[in-house]
Amino acid sequence: MEFNPAEYAKSRIQDLALYEPGKMREGYTKLASNENNYGPSPRVVETLKRESERVNIYPHRFQELREKIAGYCGVNADNILLGNGSDELIDMVLKTFKGPVMGLSPTFAEYRLGAEILGEEYSEVRLNDDFSFPAEEFISNAEGAGILILCSPNSPTGGVISDEDVRRVLELGKLTIVDEAYVEFYGKSVIAMMDEFPNLVVMRTFAKAFALAGLRLGYAVASPGIVELMSRVRMPFNVNSLALGAGIAAIDSVDYMRQTVEGIKRDRRILFEVLSGKFRAFKSEANFVLIDVSPMKAEEFFDRLMQERIIVRSFGKFKGFEGEYVRISVGTPEENRRLIEVLDSL
Ligand SMILES: Cc1ncc(COP(=O)(O)O)c(C=O)c1O
């Protein structure tokens, strides 16, 4: 029997492009996905070993982890919603609340993809030429939108949005997401604005500073009304028991994460200096640095590092911007030294 599945797929799915994750090759240094290459704390690793013997039981430590996260963020447990990575939280927000959706460009690709999967209209406001936040333009374009998405520090640019600008966006009264995936590398959060703005949803992840990317664990911080509505679209057991246990252990050993973040910030400064001597580099408050390698092509730069067994993230051109863009995550001190050696030899 002949069967053409595309004929039966929803038309909006037929037009979707696949999300392309950072590349990975065994034995290579991966600096492509902004992971924390120091790895998780020993306490997390111990917990995972222990929890692995109990995977016959459905996950149940949801409330315990919500309470831990609430303590870490200085809010209440009913302000916390857990997700299978913050990717899932993006999907849950978009499933729960009405579009159209408006974000920035360039920014994290999942916002557009998530909206398009659900058939929501998605528009974007171009960042300024230096990738700073165009507050006036964002605000004046927001009128027709239902959901606004900000990302600070932004991926892939590393830039941040000032508190004052976040506040001005929140004052529009629309449901506003602030993605703080990289907050630990920046050190400043907008969570405290929740008291004044019940329309704020802060999204966070354990994939970056806490080094748990492989376990898929994220959380949203929002007013209890938002958390309750979003919980209605949550799949039962959306976070698995290894991730729950690891999240609890990660917060119990938060000093370990903080030490690694200090190391990464130190190496970010060193890497930024080196990169700025060779390319147009953009100041970053996250665990990566974006560079414009033109006149070289981004793919050529990528290939040259790949030959040295280092994997970075090539974006090529950003729509509406001059330049050839590559993002490099900050690894361990040893990885950073080796990267700099390779850059010097280019
Ligand atoms: C800005 C931003 N938000 C969210 C995510 C995804 O996080 P998670 O791994 O928790 O789904 C990423 C991952 O690269 C990111 O850069």
CATH topology of the largest domain: Aspartate Aminotransferase, domain 2
Write down the domain tally.
2
Ligands in the model, by name, code or SMILES, are: pyridoxal-5'-phosphate
Helical proportion, percent range: 25-40%
Count all strands and give the number: 13
- CATH superfamily label of the largest domain: Type I PLP-dependent aspartate aminotransferase-like (Major domain)
Strand arrangement across the biggest beta sheet: 2-8-7-6-5-3-4
Secondary-structure-based class equals alpha/beta
> Given this structure, which CATH class of the largest domain is correct?
Alpha Beta
Radius of gyration (CA) equals 20 Å
What is the overall shape? globular
Overview in brief:
This protein is α/β, with parallel strands linked by helices and 346 residues long. It is 40% helix and 16% strand. The chain folds into two domains: 126 residues, Alpha-Beta Complex (Aspartate Aminotransferase, domain 1); 212 residues, 3-Layer(aba) Sandwich (Aspartate Aminotransferase, domain 2).
3D structure, described in words:
By secondary structure, the protein is of the alpha/beta class. It folds into two domains: 5-39 and 255-345, Aspartate Aminotransferase, domain 1 (Alpha-Beta Complex); 42-253, 3-Layer(aba) Sandwich (Aspartate Aminotransferase, domain 2), CATH 3.40.640.10. Helices cover 40% and strands 16% of the residues. It has helices at 5-8, 11-14, 42-52, 62-73, 85-96, 110-117, 135-141, 163-170, 183-186, 224-231, 241-252, 254-278, 298-307, 333-345, and strands at 29-30, 80-83, 101-105, 122-126, 147-151, 175-179, 200-205, 218-222, 280-282, 288-292, 310-311, 313-316, 325-329. The strands form three sheets. A seven-stranded mixed β-sheet has the order 2-8-7-6-5-3-4. Helix 6 (110-117) links the parallel strand 3 (101-105) and strand 4. Helix 3 (42-52) packs antiparallel against helix 11, helix 4 (62-73) runs parallel beside helix 11 (241-252) and helix 5 packs across helix 6 (110-117). The N and C termini lie far apart (55 Å). The mean pLDDT is 96. The protein binds pyridoxal-5'-phosphate.
